[in-house]
């Protein structure tokens, strides 16, 4: 998957709508301390479904919304749009929006979807909010210090099989529900005999 464009509005320090084109090849983001370089990487993680406030350097999920400054009032929502191209050259547009008091909503190619569906789209393309391709400050040291199980998770994400675990969990839940239904049916049949 190749990320082609990123649009931010009200996300952290990006109070005004901003659009970035990410060309093929190496992209560098330069700027003075505190200008929002890390916020850009966090916007990519966030639109991919990141839900850990800690990994977004916030106390709660709504902390990604522009909090206001001495000169500017705060915003009520934050939105990030990611345009990408999948391995087959198909265009993909993922939108995540959060409103104060209303939580997050996602859209993929114009359709409302669940957070889980977004995670699967990226997991199947061997990427996602926890992809080792998104290297934030301190990440290299974290990889070196990672426990074997954590390293395995990183490798599984890089190999594109992380989505299989989500589907397996879903299938196991359905199986358990079906088993419970069957047991109830047998009870009822037993009472009828
Ligand atoms: P450095 O080079 O020091 O790592 P950076 O360019 O990566 O800095 P970021 O850490 O991305 O900068 O941006 C930090 C800035 O974003 C700070 O000025 C902070 O006040 C601002 N910021 C973060 N969250 C919000 C928010 N919710 N509302 C407004 N501003 C925010």
UniProtKB/TrEMBL annotation:
Positions that bind ATP: 32-39
Coiled coil: 161-193
Signal sequence interval, chain numbering: none
Entry's localization field: Cytoplasm
Assembly information from the UniProt record: Homodimer.
Domain remark text: Contains large globular domains required for ATP hydrolysis at each terminus and a third globular domain forming a flexible hinge near the middle of the molecule. These domains are separated by coiled-coil structures.
Similarity-based family: Belongs to the SMC family.
Function: Required for chromosome condensation and partitioning.
Protein's UniProt name: Chromosome partition protein Smc
Gene: smc
């Amino acid at each position: 998957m190749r990320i082609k464009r990123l649009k931010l509005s009200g996300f952290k320090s990006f109070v005004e709508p901003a659009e970035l084109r990410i060309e093929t090849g190496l992209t560098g983001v330069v700027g003075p301390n505190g200008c929002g370089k890390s916020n850009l990487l966090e916007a990519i993680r966030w639109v991919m479904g990141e839900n850990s406030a800690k990994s977004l350097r916030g106390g709660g999920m709504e902390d990604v919304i522009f909090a206001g400054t001495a000169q500017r009032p705060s915003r009520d929502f934050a939105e990030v749009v990611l345009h990408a191209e999948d391995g087959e050259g198909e265009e993909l547009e993922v939108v995540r929006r959060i409103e104060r008091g209303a939580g997050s909503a996602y859209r993929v190619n114009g359709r409302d979807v669940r957070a889980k569906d977004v995670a699967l789209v990226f997991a199947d393309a061997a990427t996602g909010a926890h992809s080792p391709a998104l290297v934030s400050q301190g990440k290299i040291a974290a990889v070196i210090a990672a426990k074997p199980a954590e390293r395995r998770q990183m490798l599984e994400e890089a190999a594109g099989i992380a989505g299989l675990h989500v589907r397996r969990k879903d299938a196991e839940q359905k199986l358990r529900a079906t088993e419970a239904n069957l047991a109830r049916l047998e009870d009822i049949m037993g009472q009828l005999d």
